[in-house]
Amino acid sequence: MLVFTIRRIIQAIPVIFGVSILVFLMMHLVPGDPAQVIAGEAASQQTIDQIRERLGLNDPIPMQYLQFVTNAIQGDIGTSIRTGQPVADEVFSRFWVTLELTVYSMILSTFIGLIAGIISAVRHYTVTDVVVMIIALFGLSMPNFWLGLMLIQFFSINLGIFPVSGWGTPEQIVLPVIALGTAGAAIIARMTRSSMLEVIGQDYIRTARAKGVKERIVIYKHALKNAMIPVVTVIGLEFGTLLTGAVLTETVFSINGLGRFVVESITARDFPAVQGSVLVIALIFILVNLLVDLSYRFLNKRIDLN
Amino acid sequence: MSNDADVLQIQDLQTSFFVDDGEVKAVDGVSLDIPKGKTVGIVGESGSGKSITSMSVMRLIRNPGRIKGGSIHYNGEDLLQKTEKQMQKIRGNKISMIFQEPMTSLNPVYTIGQQISEVIQIHQGLSKKDALSKSVEMLELVGIPSPKDRVKQYPHELSGGMRQRVMIAIALACNPELLIADEPTTALDVTIQAQILDLINELRRSLGMSVILITHDLGVVAETCDYVAVMYAGKVVEYADVHTLFKEPKHPYTVGLMNSLPRHDMDQDELNVIEGNVPKPGEMPEGCRFAPRCPFASDICTNELPDLMETEDGNQVRCWIYSEKWDGDPEVNVKNDYQTARSQ
């Protein structure tokens, strides 16, 4: 298990480098001169030169990349043009809000998704199954920003139960988490259902029943652990989707998180801020996938150390 | 035939599957008695209903299947009247089952020890620790070397023969009165087959249980069974003790099955097959279900379904030839005339 863990961590290193190259190149992939883009149309040549000098754009590109990586390892991912603050500080002050939003949504998605999926699978082809799957289809089809707006309209404006915006109090948390978590719950429900259905048809489930095991234990002990293997993959991938979705949800609910920071930075052409935020988000995503890989080994003993 | 010496009495069992096209009668009026301490073989082609019969005894028929009628008396109590909860106390405890697919019948994410212990904990209420040491004993009983190490292993670390031994250990852990073995050796190598059958036989003798052995292999039947039920298209067509069955098979289908075995004492270019196929559900012939494939079939066979009739030697056969209503050649001898009749 330790060897397996170390191996997986080592495998993540090239991915991190790939991500850093892509993030670094972002600035250079923008059509035209990055300094010109940052300064805007009306800027004087002097301003542009200043920006170019400050961002080190006059150095050869490999040198710039080396500088970028060296700084990033030391925790310096540039300085925001907009605020003049280090991007790292800006990102980490907002990071926790986004992490909270994502993790709560994740918990909601997983919880609701698993339960709905199991119920659907156990009662497959009944009315319950059809109803659950139709709801899931709706959940899957609704864009989270639209769902967010509808939730605000109904619960905040019409009923006045929950606040329209913000983050922090329990009341403020409810709507954004529902808006963000619904699609994930739907995906996890559908995945759990099909995975459970496949597992329930397996010979070893028949064996469990033939042993006199109670149906509830057949489902939750014998079937679920096997069915979880593909579901965990989806949950891990879903985390990435949630991070992306947070951008929109935070905008809709005016939450001062990483997602909204990225949007604002893009609008303001604050390249260092965008670079830094994307790098942090990408690293989190890599970390989550690493955890997912490690959990396979725990769920399925057949995955060999090699 | 039913008496106190029977551990199981199946009466007119009917199990159907309700699919889009209508009802499929997989088991259609099967009656069968299983004497205490004996091995009863159920033979027949695929689709004859032999596995569904055994799954019905375990009450493990799942949707869209349903047991429609009949009774299954186990020690005087009708299993079909029991609640699911009562059945859970019987399954794996009083009546156990092992299956055809040893490779996939064990749960891949739990250890061998956990899977044997589970059945012991459920039915005997032993602690985890005691159940595990009982598991080690069971593995020893079924002839698995170094059982103490094996209990910690996962199914994928064991061969097919070993896994079937584990299945037998699970099935016998609670000293069942009846073991149902559904083609237990079909998926195994020939050498392992013999070992597994010997093991089942030996344990049956030492533990004094009854065995229902489902197979399509007449060689296996000859070696292990005391009585044999031959099934065709959801019905029992012949029931006899194993000696009589092989010496004087009565039903044309039984004779056909025996003739289709490859012979080692003759140089054969071709195997003798029974022409045609098992009738599809929904296309069941009106009369005897074997009539379309039977070389002896006469008018009555195609028009009227025969009952299971008792013969002079106390066995049973479902064939008009043995009844007073027989309208064909009165001198016919099914066993001796089969080949001649077939070639005509």
TrEMBL record, chain A:
InterPro entries: BPD_transp_1_N, MetI-like, MetI-like_sf. GO terms for biological process: transmembrane transport. CDD domains: TM_PBP2. It is found in: Cell membrane. GO terms for cellular component: plasma membrane. Belongs to the binding-protein-dependent transport system permease family. Residues 95-292 form the ABC transmembrane type-1 domain. The chain crosses the membrane at residues 12-30, 101-122, 134-161, 173-192, 227-253, 273-292. It holds the Pfam family BPD_transp_1_N. Keywords: Cell membrane, Membrane, Transmembrane, Transmembrane helix, Transport. This is Peptide/nickel transport system permease protein. Gene3D superfamilies: MetI-like. It is a multi-pass membrane protein. It comes from the Bacteria. Its main location: membrane. It comes from Salibacterium halotolerans. PANTHER family: DIPEPTIDE TRANSPORT SYSTEM PERMEASE PROTEIN DPPB-RELATED.
TrEMBL record, chain B:
Pfam families: ABC_tran (PF00005), oligo_HPY (PF08352). It is a peripheral membrane protein. The keyword Transport applies. GO terms for cellular component: plasma membrane. It is found in: Cell membrane. Keywords: ATP-binding, Cell membrane, Membrane, Nucleotide-binding, Transport. It comes from the Bacteria. This is Peptide/nickel transport system ATP-binding protein. One of its GO terms (biological process) is peptide transport. It comes from Salibacterium halotolerans. Belongs to the ABC transporter superfamily. Residues 8-258 form the ABC transporter domain. The lineage of its organism: Bacteria, Bacillati, Bacillota, Bacilli, Bacillales. One of its GO terms (molecular function) is ATP binding. PANTHER family: DIPEPTIDE TRANSPORT ATP-BINDING PROTEIN DPPD (PTHR43297:SF2), OLIGOPEPTIDE TRANSPORT ATP-BINDING PROTEIN APPD (PTHR43297).
